[in-house]
């Protein structure tokens, strides 16, 4: 995790506690919000002095980038499996359905994600970080679309980048929706999965006739 | 605006500056975040002493409820027009398209909305407030669906509450999406409007054969 190397890495060897530090930071942000969390609190939670902490994270935006990049590794691994599957779109359908269902049931990281989105809309430096990561996720999806349809990346991007973005929005929407009284959560989940399916159907329709199943 | 009456309304007549106070509060929340904004700052922005301010807003959650209820009045007026239109679903389609297009272009209240969503996921007292308001919006939509299809409210709710919720989610998703590099915003907007249309088509299909246009 090169991002977490201290700024003067020559002088001090990298710490082995990165995952622990990120967990502590994640917890404080989720509980206090981006603006409510002070550098003092964040450093204390990570078990570090404020001075030392600043050497790892020059700003709260840098911390957030590290947090979402950490999560992105899971996403990357998922997409690697999708791209190498015999039927990438079918594998993607299953993976997205799992993700929507897990979010709907657990939603443990929903507060942090919502907090990052909100802070990004207020703070341009954070919007750049979040935009960069969202761009990467869109790229993974479009690459999978390209593999599945036989379109080259640029053509796939031109035709289906918006499809990829909307799929990400729908999955994210599941994480932030509040549970309200008597609306049947299961009916909403089914509807969202149906919307995702119809977007993937449109992508699949770009496959040459002979290779369609 | 009865919510804004001071707690001991007998002792003091209601202030005529409510809209001004709400604007000031909205601005501070949008800039500093829910947790970053202190009661002192909020009171100062509203031009009131902290003591007096507490009499109007016993908590930040109470302020947020007042803010979203204020916005809800616009929504209510929109839905009243939809319900009394000759073709409620067609009118709703146009109104939602306008809303999505306006959000995509202006997004001025996106930071505040995202902030409220994020804070609600962290704070149960705020989740109750936001859930109550979202429930009301869902009810307006389902009522419009009932009027359009001739279904009674309970049947319309059972069949289409999830449709209503997803439409709200899609419109909200437009407010929070970040603009990223080369993804064509217009293509995404078109896709979202198409999704909303397909949900409304499903509602329209519940109309008795004879009354379909």
TrEMBL record, chains A, B:
SUPFAM superfamilies: Homeodomain-like (SSF46689). It comes from Gemmobacter megaterium. It holds the Pfam family TetR_N. This is Transcriptional regulator, TetR family. The keyword Magnesium does not apply. The lineage of its organism: Bacteria, Pseudomonadati, Pseudomonadota, Alphaproteobacteria, Rhodobacterales. Keywords: DNA-binding, Transcription, Transcription regulation. InterPro entries: Homeodomain-like_sf, HTH-type_TetR-like_transc_reg, HTH_TetR. Transmembrane segments: none annotated. The keyword GTP-binding does not apply. Residues 38-57 bind DNA. Residues 15-75 form the HTH tetR-type domain. PROSITE patterns: HTH_TETR_2. GO terms for molecular function: DNA-binding transcription factor activity; transcription cis-regulatory region binding.
